[in-house]
Write a structure and sequence with these properties.
This is GGDEF domain-containing protein. There is one protein chain. The protein has an eight-stranded mixed barrel with strand order 1-2-4-5-6-7-8-9, surrounded by four helices. It has 282 residues and is an alpha/beta fold. It is built from ten helices and ten strands. Helix 3 packs parallel to helix 5. The chain binds ligand C2E and magnesium ion (MG) (2 copies). Ligand C2E binds next to strand 2, helix 2, helix 3 and strand 6.
Length: 282
């Protein structure tokens, strides 16, 4: 027939798999050289105070800008590097790049915006409860004021009850060296409120899922999360906000910071510096 026999279908399938595996293998092979060449770059996405009563902050998001392969997004390479353990090196590299940037802003007497950095839960599991010591070692090489860098951990790390002492040691470790701690993707999966009673956290990042297909219920939940966070003296960030209507709503609810395309996509550092200069209150 025109479509060919099942053999052809299989052949096509094999070829697709093979291409994917080729790509994976190539990305793996490129990793070390790319680290040395600074092909992994910090992009900064602004977090903006909707009421304008505090300066903007930013989240550091990695972009792999490869001279031959072009721009590669984290959704492609993070899962791959989580599988083979390279994520640990990448997380630490991104952290050091952020330290260097803050240090440079201070030396050049520029505005010093707070920046948050992501840590993979695979990295946490791999490195154990002393993980914060690796970060401290890097931090000590720069002059970074307290509270200016924030570590983003996802709530799934806090999942199991018997993980409490483990996670507590990590959070306390980070905070003892002047790093803030934020709970990323809060409310996405297993969000257990009881963990908030165990851990010292500086900020909650409400997951995007609250704001896509929102309804009356999700609005009430968001109001309650903001109130709870404030009672516990945490900042609240809404992420993935795309339209102005939601900004107005969150502003009225007292949400501290908003991150999303409504303000800006993640920007290369130079563009972020221009952006914050042109936007009042940043
Ligand atoms: P995340 O930490 O939850 O980051 C938020 C993601 O949402 C980013 O995707 C960001 O570009 C995207 N986003 C921001 N505003 C909007 C919006 O208004 N609408 C929509 N649809 N999306 C928005 P990105 O940069 O592709 O990063 C994806 C994930 O990759 C991050 O999720 C984070 O988990 C991970 N990631 C990024 N950089 C690093 C890193 O240096 N280390 C580790 N371990 N993970 C990282
Ligand atoms: Mg994040
Ligand atoms: Mg998130």
């Amino acid at each position: 027939s025109k479509l060919g026999g099942p053999g052809n279908v299989c052949h096509f399938y094999d070829e697709t798999i093979a291409k994917l595996l080729d790509r994976e293998e190539r990305l793996n092979d490129l990793f070390e050289a790319s680290l040395r060449n600074h092909d992994f770059q910090i992009y900064l996405q602004p977090k903006v105070s909707p009421s304008g009563n505090r300066p903007c902050e930013a989240e550091a998001l990695v972009r792999w800008v490869h001279p031959q392969e072009g721009m590669i997004y984290p959704s492609e390479f993070i899962p791959l590097f989580e599988k083979n353990g390279k994520i640990c090196k990448l997380d630490l590299y991104m952290f050091e790049e952020v330290c260097r940037l803050e240090d440079r802003w201070i030396r050049e007497k520029k505005t010093v915006s707070r920046i948050s950095v992501n840590i993979s839960r695979f990295h946490l599991r791999e490195a154990g409860s002393d993980i914060w010591k690796k970060y401290k070692k890097i931090l000590d090489q720069y002059h970074i004021p307290e509270g200016i860098i924030e570590m983003e951990l996802t709530e799934t790390m806090f999942l199991e009850e018997n993980q409490v002492p483990f996670v507590k040691a990590i959070l306390d470790g980070f905070r003892s060296c002047g790093l803030r701690v934020a709970l990323d993707d809060f409310g996405f999966a297993y969000s257990s409120l009881s963990m908030l009673k165990e851990f010292a956290v500086d900020a909650l990042k409400m997951d995007r899922s609250f704001f896509v297909n929102e309804n009356d219920k999700s609005k009430k939940i968001v109001v309650s999360i903001i109130q709870m966070a404030h009672n516990l003296e945490m900042d609240v960030v809404a992420e993935g906000i795309e339209d102005q209507e939601q900004v107005e709503m969150l502003k009225n609810m007292g949400c501290d910071l908003i991150q999303g395309y409504v303000y800006s996509r993640p920007l290369p550092v130079g563009e972020f510096e221009i952006w914050r200069q042109e936007n009042r209150g940043c």
